[in-house]
Design brief:
With 165 residues, the chain is mostly helical. The protein is built from 8 helices and no strands.
Amino acid sequence: MEQDLFHAAYPLARRVAQVHSAKWVRVLRAAGHDRDDLEAVCIAEVWAKLHRFNPTKSSLPTFVERIVTSKAFSFLRRCKARKRTRTDADATGISGMPIDVAIARRVDLRRALASLNNADQKVARMLVHWNPSEIAKLFGISRASVYRCIERIREAFRRAGLENY
């Protein structure tokens, strides 16, 4: 049955793919592809998804057109995407420090946080986004308690060698 469906779907798929490839011929050429590449990818996608066709939900032309359009735009999106190339700048992390140093610092940071009790760990993580007054309100504790937690966090950082962090 799929074989018969494919024979009916093939001309529809090819026509829709030709329409899309004609519209986007410059994008395809810039990416090193031609119209036949897009058509082949779209027809293969129709073949792969033909087993999902349910005539009670849609007609074959609608089914084929939706599959081909979706695949064509996916293919074109990949063609237009800026290609990633590795440069010397990739060897540094977000902060500009070398990746191996950033990883070592992250390991040290996690080790320092693991040495704290659960409440202090929560406060340390919240300090990234909230100030001590807001943390005190959220936990229902005094600001002095939050500042004592901050001092314990600083001490854990000093023990881990992260005093300037």
